[in-house]
Amino acid sequence: MTQSPNPSALPQFSQLTIQGEDAEKFLQGQLTCDVTKLGLSYQAAAICNLKGRIEFGIWIKKQAEKHYDVVISSDCADALQAHLKKFGAFSKFDTSGSIAIYPCVLADAPTFSHKDDHNTAKDTQDWMACSIATGNYWIVAATQGEFQPQELRLHQRGGMDYDKGCYLGQEVIARIYFKSAPKAFLHYVKGTGALPAAGDKLDKIQVVNAIENDNGFTALVVARPEHLAESDLNILDLPAALQVDVARPK
């Protein structure tokens, strides 16, 4: 059973729309996923910096031809707008202003809704718990630039395409994927004590997201397996697709 956190501490999300003649081409050169394969379901993806680390963690879907909806943590929305304006200055597309969108769980999966019925603390709390249990991390302002997408198992969730061509950070990301592998990567854990914040370090273990429960907290963390083994955290099972080796299949 989870406790009811302060509503002001709950994550908030915003949606913006990108549409126009060059929308697909522009996004293809920005996102880690293959934009040409997007459909009407939200796909987790990322826009990385030149160091190959996630600057913006997003969910994106193709709403219509040359029309894409993007969901992002609200505290990153203004920075994303500035990024799109900077890098898209010579591309033909329009970006809408940000509007609120609500996290919720539908058909046992974390997703988002514009319906006011889902604008509740319980819906958000359920989304957090379901997201953490399924590896559906969310990047906030405090964790921008902290994680490499392979560390967060984004490639195991369809959010990375290593054959699509160039995008921001692609050279570094591809080098790690094809020539090595992250030594620290995403785990689902249970701990005791105070609730850590996103980005906090628990010794050599970094918190991605966490939620409080009656006996402590559950969290997504990035850590080396040997450091987890030495910690007081209990490792829980992620979905089967996220339990496989993060390295490139040989």
Automatic annotation (TrEMBL):
Keywords: Methyltransferase, Transferase
Record's keyword annotation contains DNA-binding: no
Gene3D superfamilies recorded: 2.40.30.160, Aminomethyltransferase beta-barrel domains (3.30.70.1400)
GO terms classed as biological process: iron-sulfur cluster assembly; methylation
Keyword S-adenosyl-L-methionine: no
NCBIfam families documented for this protein: ygfZ_signature (TIGR03317)
Protein name: Aminomethyltransferase
Lineage: Bacteria, Pseudomonadati, Pseudomonadota, Gammaproteobacteria, Moraxellales
